[in-house]
Specification:
Strand content: over 45%
Number of helices: 0
CATH class: Mainly Beta
Shape: elongated
Order of helices and strands: EEEEEEEEEEEEE
Radius of gyration: 22 Å
CATH architecture: Sandwich
Number of strands: 13
Mean pLDDT: 82
Low-confidence stretches: 1-11, 26-31
Largest sheet: 6 strands, antiparallel
Structural class: mainly beta
CATH topology: Jelly Rolls
Helix content: under 10%
Length: 174
């Protein structure tokens, strides 16, 4: 059953033409070359890293990839256990960011707690990004964390209580 629209397509007699390729009705074919996964690399850590400052700090989770072409995109998936200690204040926000080399790709709220002072809370978090590094040279992606506001014994914890955290890179071919 066909639903929706097919850009650059034309229906003729017993076939449909998509991007210049004829596909017989009732059959199937692969059209074009984009969107396929060229390679997958990943890294893990289960070492808890804490930060009590408003300056981004590495969490020890990084991985490198060498795209097969400068036109490739890199799909990044990070899964982590993030902890937050509110210290002597009621509210706290911890930030997590994804960096390629020294370039920030995306920033996320890693954990947020609005409640009672003196609480530690754990959050299971996932972050995704689609990056265009525009190179066929090796690039390294890493994760960093910081607090939105420091002081008063506030802390953010990555791989909280030594839980497993992962970063996965998928090269999406053009």
């Amino acid at each position: 059953m066909l639903e929706g629209s097919l850009p650059n397509s034309q229906l003729e007699n017993d076939s449909i033409t998509i991007n210049g390729s004829a596909v017989p009705l009732g059959g199937s074919t692969t059209v074009g070359g984009g969107g396929k996964i060229g390679q997958v690399v990943f890294a893990t850590t289960s070492t808890e890293v804490n930060n009590g400052t408003t300056t981004y700090d590495d969490v020890g989770l990084s991985v490198s990839i060498t795209p097969t072409a400068a036109s490739s995109k890199i799909f990044v998936i990070v899964s982590a256990s993030v902890g937050l200690a509110t210290g002597t204040v009621n509210n706290q926000k911890g930030l997590v960011r994804l960096v390629r080399g020294s370039t920030e790709i995306a920033e996320y709220i890693g954990a947020r707690f609005d409640g009672t002072a003196g609480v530690q809370a754990a959050f299971s978090s996932s972050y995704t990004a689609l990056d265009s590094p525009s190179t066929a040279s090796t690039v390294t992606y890493k994760v960093q964390q910081k607090l939105d506001t420091s002081g008063n014994n506030r802390q953010i914890f990555f791989s909280y209580q030594n839980a497993l955290s992962t970063i996965t890179l998928m090269e999406v071919l053009a």
